[in-house]
Design brief:
The complex is a heterodimer of chains A (111) and B (112).
Chain A (H helix, E strand, L loop, with lengths): L4 E3 L2 E4 L5 E6 L6 E7 L6 E7 L2 E4 L8 E4 L6 E5 L8 E8 L4 E3 L3 E5 L1
Parallel strand pairs in A: 2-11
Antiparallel strand pairs in A: 1-3, 3-8, 4-5, 4-9, 5-6, 7-8, 9-10, 9-11
Chain B lengths: L2 E3 L4 E5 L4 E3 L2 E3 L6 E7 L6 E7 L7 E2 L2 E6 L4 E6 L8 E8 L5 E2 L3 E6 L1
Parallel strand pairs in B: 2-12
Antiparallel strand pairs in B: 1-4, 3-9, 5-6, 5-10, 7-8, 8-9, 10-11, 10-12
The chains are: A mainly beta (111), B mainly beta (112).
């Protein structure tokens, strides 16, 4: 495994449904980050973990958003009761010292 | 709080020419790092170059160089000998005591 893996690549869901995305970081990276990117904008920071500890979650967009990294390896981002405004690309990145490696993202479309 | 400003929504450059993408930043952190990423239409974020705030030399990586002017709080990306494959969105980002904060990006189009 030489990169950050995100699953699924695309997700279409109906408004009001819950969705969960998974991120598998580079194995030796202890930090993991979630970003959201809407069309025409730069990525917007949501939350991050160092090992299993969530160090910052105040940037999560609402209480409908939550993230976990239970064993300090993969992470999940859950959005409950999705809204059309949640449609975006959700990017995961991992890092060790300097440098962030991003995954290819999960594109969410809420219809 | 940290902020990145990219004032060029779009840029055009002729193939084989050099182009400069502007980036200014604001931070209260004494130690910080500046990054440039490329995002092609496929959506992946590709790391290009990094400059630490205490680095005395401007960073270079192949055809990419970073023109770092600390007093002016600018970190412009220079791409030399542009190629058609350079057409993409380019994002400047800063990391200090908080994770990466990105600008809004510049869309570069390379013309044959």
């Amino acid at each position: 495994d030489t990169g950050v893996s995100q699953d699924p690549r695309h997700k279409i869901t109906k408004r009001g449904q819950n969705v969960t995305f998974r991120c598998d970081p580079i194995s030796e990276h202890n930090r993991l980050y979630w970003y959201r990117q809407t069309l025409g904008q730069g990525p917007e920071f949501l939350t991050y973990f160092q090992n299993e500890a969530q160090l910052e979650k105040s940037r999560l967009l609402s209480d409908r958003f939550s993230a976990e990294r239970p064993k300090g390896s993969f992470s999940t981002l859950e959005i409950q009761r999705t809204e059309q405004g949640d449609s975006a690309m959700y990017l995961c990145a991992s890092s060790w010292a300097e440098g962030y490696t991003f995954g290819s993202g999960t594109r969410l479309t809420v219809v | 709080a940290q902020k990145i400003t990219q004032t060029q929504p779009g840029m055009f450059v002729q193939e084989k020419e050099a182009v400069t993408l502007d980036c200014t930043y604001d931070t209260s952190d004494q130690s910080y790092g500046l990054f440039w990423y490329k995002q092609p239409s496929s959506g992946e974020m590709i790391f290009l170059i990094y400059q630490g705030s205490y680095d005395e030399q401007n960073a270079t990586e192949g055809r990419y160089s970073l023109n770092f002017q600390k007093a002016r709080k600018s970190a412009n990306l220079v791409i030399s000998a542009s190629q058609l494959g350079d057409s993409a969105m380019y994002f400047c980002a800063i990391e200090g005591n908080t994770p990466l904060v990105f600008g809004k990006g510049t869309r570069l189009s390379v013309i044959a």
